[in-house]
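To close the chapter, one final illustration. This time we ask the reader to focus less on the individual chains and more on the assembly as a whole: which components sit near each other, and how the overall shape emerges from the parts.
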Amino acid sequence: MEQSLDVKDLTVSYSNKIAIKNFDVSVDSGKLIGIIGPNGSGKSTFVKSVLDLVPKDSGEVQIFGKSIDKIRKNIAYIPQRSHIDWNFPILVKDTVIQGTYPKLGLFSRPKEKEKKIAMEALKKVGMEEFADKQIGELSGGQQQRVFVARSLSQNADILFMDEPFVGIDIHSEEVIIKILKELRDQGKTLFVIHHDLTKVEDYFDDLILVNGGLVAAGPVAEVFTPDLMEKTFNAPLAVLENMGGKLS
Amino acid sequence: MSFLNDLLFYDYLQKALITSIMVGIISGVIGSFIVLRGMSLMGDAISHAVLPGIAISYMLGISYFYGAVVAGVIAAVGIGGISQNSRIKTDASIGIVFSTALALGIILITKAQSATDLTQILFGNVLHVRTSDMWITAGVSLLVIIIIVVFYKELLIATFDETMARVYGLNTRFIHYGLMVLLTLVAVASLQTVGVILVVSLLITPASTAYLLTNRLSIMIVLSSIFGASAAVVGIYYSYMHDLPSGPIIAIASAILFVLVLIFSPRQGVLWPKLRKMKKS
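The assembled structure is written out below.
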């Protein structure tokens, strides 16, 4: 199987404090992958350095065997909801159209074709009737669905999501996970930063466990184990089970 | 009306009117991005920071335009440099750079020129606009509008979701400094109309007023330009009729419009929600 992400000996630090150290991982394509770890474990840093948003101290990252700069337009990214200014003067439909920007390139504007792509993506997440609303008028779950629609209209082969399920309603969560699984079945590779253990087994194919570096990575059946979880979260099993994880 | 009559007869009044309408428009355009990016203070800082550049241009006998642009860009880079390379936060580094530049500018201008010039630069005197100033403003306006129209989509995404913009390969740092250069140009173009001290009012107040009225960036930019231009025209009128400095009049006119919209805006205004509540109860 083709390798989607290949990370070798990645170390990243912020003002002399090491965030992740000697990170090695490689992931097959066509998987839905959970990036799991406690707060401050470096999982966001891992994703940011993979996407070259923060400088690396050392290490190498390749996506589909290429350096990130050659493949950027093919990467979709969904930010944490808290990183967006929800008062921004923008409508739902115009947010979704942004997904078509990367492939449009400089100088060209979205036209009828792009508007159609965006409306179809909105339908897919069940939000077409909200197309003319300002994004701040939506609930948290609806906002997250709009951003999923935006990445659908980008039609990228790799998708990164930062904590998509935080603070959203169950219906939205179900809509989103169904779409993520469909994308996976179409051969896309999806990375989801996730900080609790609920539904890990239902949602993901593979896990990357992070705690200041790589703890373990592999299929859920192999790495979602009591001692690896204890190692990832530095917490005894009883506490973790309270977080909702059914540990086998 | 004597103002309209005079407008037909006096060349300098026409120049003043045309220049200030252009300044109102481009301040509204750039101001929309400045407000949404949370960089209002940056606008204030850069408009003050052009002062030493103007003074040095006078001393060298070159057009004030060049010195002002160089000084504005140095200030933008300086502010970014201090906040990125130290623990000093952006608002503090803005305060340091802008007060230093203003102080330096006042000293240099006092040395180089008479005090009346300083007052004009600080508070604006739109009735003294020369033909060359008008052409500089026209050039700046054309450049600003072309860049905003051509790169609208990039400016939108870099302002709304910087991370996505960076992930797909936009150089958001370049966009930031590009906007700072445009901001400097607009500040320089506004000098004659509103003066160094009040450039920020024309940048921020019309854009904020527009922000209260619409949910689309494109409409916000258009409204903001209209409000800016209207305030500038009001400024000219009172400045001419009552012999007052144009800058403060423009600032007050913008502020009155802002307060009216703040109270009466259908969506964001403070009045309607209260009335609705009263009806319900």
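Chain A has one domain: 3-242. The radius of gyration of chain A is 18 Å. With these observations in hand, you are ready for the problems at the end of the chapter.
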